[in-house]
Amino acid sequence: MSLQLILPAAAPGVITGALLAVARASGETAPLLFTAFGNQHLVFDPNGQLQALPLTVYQYALLPYKSLQDQAWGAALVLVVMVLAINLLGDWARRVLNPRLR
């Protein structure tokens, strides 16, 4: 009985919080600089070194090559668009799952 009452009331907040956490984690650069260890190759081993988009932006922006700096700006734009899309998805989920919050 309590799950039928509590779960529908809490679902919008839980889903929105999870989406915002993913958006924030994808854009956080400082923790990734210390934990990703700068792997430049795509790997599928979760225990190995990982590649991270914010780390790639940071590394490419410091290089003297114009093409890599342009790639860094493009990757930064991808990050901003990803965070915006996840925030809009969270807002949409909140409105659809709980119409009283409109």
What's the short story on this structure?
By secondary structure, the protein is mainly alpha-helical.
Walk me through what this model shows.
With 102 residues, this protein is an all-alpha fold. The chain is 73% helix and 0% strand. The protein contains four helices and no strands. It has helices at residues 2-27, 30-35, 53-62, 66-97. Helix 1 packs antiparallel against helix 4. The protein is elongated. The protein starts with a helix and ends in a 5-residue tail after the last helix.
Features of this protein?
102 residues; mainly alpha; elongated
What's the layout of helices and strands?
Layout lengths: L1 H26 L2 H6 L17 H10 L3 H32 L5
Helix pairs in contact: 1-4, 3-4
Number of domains: 1
Termini, distance in Å? 27 Å
The number of strands is: 0
The mean pLDDT is 76
The helix content, as a percent range, equals over 70%
Number of helices: 4
Which overall shape is indicated by the principal axes computed on the Cα atoms? elongated
Strand fraction? under 5%
- In N-to-C order, the SSE pattern is HHHH
What does the main sheet amount to? none
Compute the CA-based radius of gyration: 18 Å
Structural class: mainly alpha
